[in-house]
Design brief:
Layout lengths: L6 E8 L1 E5 L4 E3 L4 E2 L3 E5 L6 E8 L7 E4 L2 E3 L4 H20 L11 E7 L9 H16 L6 H11 L11 E5 L10 E6 L7 E7 L9 H11 L3 H21 L3 H20 L10 H17 L4 E5 L5 E6 L3 H12 L6 E5 L9 E3 L1
Parallel strand pairs: 7-9
Antiparallel strand pairs: 1-6, 1-16, 2-5, 3-4, 5-10, 6-9, 7-8, 10-11, 12-14, 12-15, 13-14
The structure holds adenosine-5'-diphosphate, ligand DP6 and cobalt (II) ion.
Ligand DP6 binds next to helix 4.
């Protein structure tokens, strides 16, 4: 009798915010970057994607529903993830004939982000990490986070870092096939338990220039870009790993802020220029400067991805001096919302109902 069962698995994946930024692809097809990057994975309680993957012979075709809206699954990125995961499942099925042949069934993906999508808060990172892990769970693949990171990278570069918690590096690798362009843990969240992040949502609107197309125009036109990729970022990678290992907040903060500024300077140097920061973002930068000047040292560090929303890192002991002051100064402004978040280990809530 034909198998008409619906096979299903769910997972969640957290957002990660880069402190050394990925911006530029050396191979757009395989999503291989022009520089390595480092991020901090934020708590899933606040910013996360929840994704359910199912497959069944009763489904007509592959589908993806994001926040209740149907998405195109024919894009090369989504297709690459589906193809790689199906190939791993097919290999399992070939070695064990008692396994149901899930690799040939249409997939149905249903995903929800509990934070703004495409607004510079790394929805593509949490989104593709969750998509890849949900399907890996559905297929019962014995894959490590690093192995899954190679697949998630092809969905969205930053997604490879969301398969780990804590402090994560995406090593750019040097091979043409991308097999060494992977995420690795720098330190678990428990290594630096006093680290905190304040998310300032300036705008939940979809950004004007997506990360994918923005970095493409930068690579093609920016004169600062090459220096950034070859000199600025490699030095920042070394300094950031050292700062994290030594839990040296002043160094962590300085590299984080200079990296964000370097990235946005490169965006401005793109032609036509890309403006991700707005006046409110700039007010947040000044406020962090005032806080650090008042403290006589760096106790707060801002960073902005491809959007106007700020993420401010600080240590727990400085909660009042940083989060308190920022919320007091900006909380009254219309359009601001803030959330305090702890970096967390990456955990997944896996449910399998067959
Ligand atoms: P962001 O700054 O939010 O990462 P990007 O421009 O990098 O913005 O990517 C946004 C795109 O990522 C969305 O338009 C969508 O195609 C994809 N995306 C976001 N969330 C998900 C999700 N949960 N599942 C699948 N794809 C997602
Ligand atoms: C500024 O990973 O969203 O957030 O690989 O094209 O999907 P694609 O781009 P994406 O770019 C993220 C850029 C960034 C910096 C970072 O997260 O490292
Ligand atoms: Co993104």
């Amino acid at each position: 009798m034909a198998d008409t069962k619906i096979y299903q698995a769910s997972t969640t994946a957290p957002v990660n915010i880069a402190v050394v930024k990925y911006w530029g692809k050396r191979d757009p097809k395989l999503n291989l970057p022009t520089n390595s990057s480092i991020s901090v994975t934020l708590s899933q309680d606040d910013l996360r994607t929840h994704t359910t993957a199912s497959c069944s012979s009763t489904f007509a075709s592959d589908t993806l529903l994001l926040n209740s809206q149907s998405q195109d699954t024919s894009g090369a990125r989504t297709q690459a993830c589906f193809r790689e995961l199906r190939a791993l499942r097919a290999a399992l099925e070939a070695s064990n004939s008692s396994l149901p042949k899930l690799s040939s069934l249409p997939l149905r993906i249903v995903s929800e982000n509990n934070f703004p999508t495409a607004a510079g808060l790394a929805s593509s990172a949490a989104g593709f990490a969750a998509l890849v892990r949900a399907i890996a769970n559905l297929y019962e693949l014995p894959a490590t986070p690093t192995a899954l990171s190679r697949i998630a990278r092809q969905g969205s570069g930053s997604a490879c870092r969301s398969l780990f918690g804590g402090y994560v590096a995406w090593e750019m690798g040097s091979k043409d096939d991308g097999s060494d362009s992977l995420a690795v843990e720098v330190a678990p969240a428990s290594h630096w338990p006093t680290m905190r992040a304040l998310i300032l949502v300036v705008s939940a609107e979809k950004k004007g220039v997506s990360s994918t197309s923005g970095m493409q125009i930068t690579v093609a036109t920016s004169q600062l870009f090459q220096r950034r990729a070859e000199i600025v970022v490699p030095a920042a990678m070394v300094a950031m790993k050292k700062a994290i290992k030594e839990k040296d907040f002043e160094s962590f903060g300085k590299v984080t802020m200079m990296e964000s500024n370097s990235f946005h300077a490169t965006c401005l140097d793109t032609f036509p220029p890309i403006f991700y920061l707005n006046d409110v973002s700039k007010a947040a930068i000044r406020l962090v400067e005032d806080i650090n000047n008042a403290a006589g040292k760096i106790i707060a560090a801002y960073t902005f991805d491809a959007g106007p929303n700020a993420v401010i890192y600080y240590e727990e002991e400085n909660t009042a001096a940083v989060a308190g002051v920022i919320k007091g100064a900006l909380g009254g402004l219309e359009g601001w919302a803030s959330r305090e978040i702890e970096p967390k280990e990456s955990t997944s809530l896996d449910a399998r109902a067959v």
